[in-house]
């Protein structure tokens, strides 16, 4: 079968590879699920992997099959699989457990291991291919009615985890009635964070770089949230009128904004940091002021990465909720399809150059009935 692979450490190495089709017995105990991939999205992580800034090969292999935003259809199941049937639409989680205590309770997204395993990213082959076989433990069912947007489950699972963590943390307050939220970044993750918070009834201000109107600002406003361009209004300027912010979600990929966000966070507020920033940027910050206000305001800040089964399931539920609350909204994120694994060049070129893209994704195979 065909697969899109890279050679980690070698820039622009994306190429087409040929791999044997996996078989059900790849999972012991008759528990294999064979999935035919229908679509696979790409994001900044894939861009970094192709630029040789990130990514590791599986042990004993000199290439890595990329792609983690998977969506597929079950083709066959082992004799001891009761959870799925052929024809079911499914998404697999990205990370696989290591050895820490968190890994052992299914919270592999919270691993404390230094070495971690992520399909299509780190030490495990990904989903820009035709088939995979996995354990039902790592596969989440997507209702048929959501199949057109199923490829967005994985990117949605990431802010689902971040926001769930924020709510968990805020149980410290005994009573928490968040009213105003700020989302920094209006890319896929920022848009989804806005959606999740709007579905929970918060008043949301989403900050993007570009001045409105454009598709992303239209999408923010279609959710009943406020869009502000940081070119015209800085976070600092906006905070007095749009805040105080009870919850802030940082997803711009630009680390200095994390420190600006610390200044704009309201008393008892929670700031979620979600940008994977590979660089080594340095900034000067008003350290005494930020520290003092954090202390006197009982504020918290939390980092978040990845997501486990629970967050993928939350993503599926919120896609269903969004379909009733904001019909057609989610599908508008699917801006740039590319058809056929052999067109990997177009996939990566679109990902790196299309400035108006929200979600670039590969149509691997037509979805069956
Ligand atoms: C993926 C996550 C992953 C993170 C860090 C993101 O693009 O969606 O699953 O944990 O990259 O590797
Ligand atoms: Zn990702």
From TrEMBL:
Keywords: Metal-binding, Oxidoreductase, Zinc. Residues 148-363 form the Glucose dehydrogenase C-terminal domain. Residues 32-143 form the Alcohol dehydrogenase-like N-terminal domain. GO terms for molecular function: oxidoreductase activity; zinc ion binding. It comes from the Bacteria. Gene3D superfamilies: Medium-chain alcohol dehydrogenases, catalytic domain, NAD(P)-binding Rossmann-like Domain. InterPro entries: ADH-like_N, ADH_Zn_CS, Glu_dehyd_C, GroES-like_sf, NAD(P)-bd_dom_sf. Its cofactor is Zn(2+). PANTHER family: GLUCOSE 1-DEHYDROGENASE, ZINC-TYPE ALCOHOL DEHYDROGENASE-LIKE PROTEIN C1198.01-RELATED. This is Glucose dehydrogenase. It comes from Candidatus Segetimicrobium genomatis.
């Amino acid at each position: 079968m065909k697969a899109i692979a890279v050679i980690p450490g070698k820039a622009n190495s994306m190429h087409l590879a040929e791999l044997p089709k996996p078989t059900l017995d790849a999972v012991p105990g008759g528990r294999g699920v064979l999935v035919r991939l229908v679509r696979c999205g790409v994001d900044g992580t894939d861009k970094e992997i192709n630029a040789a800034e990130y990514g590791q090969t599986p042990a004993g292999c000199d290439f890595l099959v990329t792609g983690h935003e998977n969506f597929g259809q079950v083709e066959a199941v082992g004799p001891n699989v009761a959870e799925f049937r052929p024809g079911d639409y499914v998404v697999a989680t990205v990370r696989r457990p290591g050895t820490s205590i968190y890994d052992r309770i299914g919270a592999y997204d919270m691993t404390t291991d230094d070495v971690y395993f992520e399909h299509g990213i780190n030490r495990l082959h990904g989903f820009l291919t035709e088939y995979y076989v996995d354990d039902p433990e790592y596969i989440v069912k997507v209702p048929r009615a959501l199949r057109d947007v199923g490829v967005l489950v994985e990117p949605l699972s990431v802010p689902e985890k971040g926001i769930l963590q924020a709510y968990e943390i805020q149980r410290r307050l005994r009573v928490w009635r968040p009213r105003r939220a700020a989302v920094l970044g209006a890319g896929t993750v920022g848009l989804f964070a806005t959606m999740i918070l709007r579905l929970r009834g918060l008043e949301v201000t989403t900050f993007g770089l570009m001045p409105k109107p454009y598709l992303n600002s239209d999408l923010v406003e279609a959710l009943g949230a406020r869009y502000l361009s940081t070119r015209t209004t800085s976070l600092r300027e906006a905070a007095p009128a749009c805040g105080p912010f009870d919850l802030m979600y940082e997803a711009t990929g630009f680390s200095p904004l994390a420190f600006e966000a610390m200044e704009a966070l309201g008393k008892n507020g929670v700031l979620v940091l979600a940008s994977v920033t590979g660089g080594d940027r340095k900034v000067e910050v008003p350290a005494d002021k930020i520290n003092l206000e954090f202390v006197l305001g009982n504020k918290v800040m939390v980092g978040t990465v990845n997501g486990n089964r629970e967050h993928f399931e939350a993503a599926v539920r919120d896609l269903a909720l969004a379909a009733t609350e904001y019909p057609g909204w989610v599908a508008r994120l699917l801006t740039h399809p590319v058809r056929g694994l052999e067109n990997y060049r177009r996939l990566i070129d679109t990902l790196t150059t299309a400035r108006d893209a929200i979600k670039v994704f590969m149509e691997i195979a037509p979805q069956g009935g």
